[in-house]
Amino acid sequence: MSESVKSLLAKYGIKPKKTLGQSFLINGSIAEEIVIAAHLSIDDTVLEIGGGLGTLTRRIVPRVRKIYVIEKEKTLAIALRDLLGESENLEVIEGDALDVRLPAANKVVANLPYSISSPITFRLLDELRFESAVLMYQKEFAERLLSPAGSRDYSRLTIEVTYRAHVERVRNVQAKEFYPVPKVDSTVVRMTPRTSGSFALDDTVFHWLIRGIYSYPNKQIRKALKIWFRNLRYDDETSEKLIKRCQGGLSGNERLRELSLDELVTLSDSVFETIEDGMLRDPRSNPK
Fold it and tell me: Which CATH class is domain 203-276?
């Protein structure tokens, strides 16, 4: 399989770009496992981002009603059309996945370009109404998505993603399964939009709060709120009043990194009530 990828790259004059971290999956068994993990059916419409040489694409095509592949590199888009051009249910969209209009799809399957992991993840979660997504990330990035509250890798990224979706590990993939061999291992996850559990009274307020306080993940809530409010030109008394609104759910002495999603929602709802009472400016009119 490695030689096949190398020969295809040579055939189409494609030189993997190190600056973009381009590497191509060469293990067909792993590609098959990724596609199986997506639980595809003939009624599905799939979006793939970064089709490459079609390692995933050619396995998806016979399983679904329609597949859209967004490919930024012109030479790779040409290769995809040439290699799989006879597939009537395949449409290759040439362009940047961060800029082009995302076609409607109920499933996403992709070995994501690692250089855009964060922005493309949030674009998918915020703009595409999908049932599930099976996505490959750099292992370090994936570990942050999967980290529990209180762990070293638990971060603003973890919170912002897990507020929107449930994330589970499918498998790890060693660097040797790619060509050229990257410096890092990868991880495949399954992401399912969250429909149950705690949700904030207002999503905009929740995200505003997380952006404001999560620059200080190791500080106690009380101290992080005071720093944030000082930056917003409010006095320390405002943070104390806000903590009291949590009705015993939080003392203010907990460290941010240790707060569960439910506890952050409780804090967000206290911020929302404080805004409604006119004690804080409303980020919905000016979210900056």
Answer: mainly alpha
For the structural domain made of 2-193, what CATH number should be given? Answer: 3.40.50.150
Using alpha carbons, select from 161, 158, 146, 134 the residue that is nearest to residue 33.
134
Query: So where are the chain's domains?
Result: 2-193, 203-276
65 in Cβ contact with 87 (< 8 Å):
no
* Pair 34, 211: CB distance under 8 Å: no
pLDDT digit string (tens) for 73-101? 999 999 999 999 889 999 999 999 999 99
Its pTM surpasses 0.70: yes
Kindly state the greatest CA–CA separation across the chain: 68
- Orientation angle between helical segments 156-164 and 261-276, nearest 10 degrees: 90
Cα–chain center distance at 234? 33
CA distance 189 to 4: 27
pLDDT tens per residue, range 250-282? 899 999 999 999 999 999 999 999 999 988 989
Please give the single-letter amino acid code of residue 247.
Answer: Q
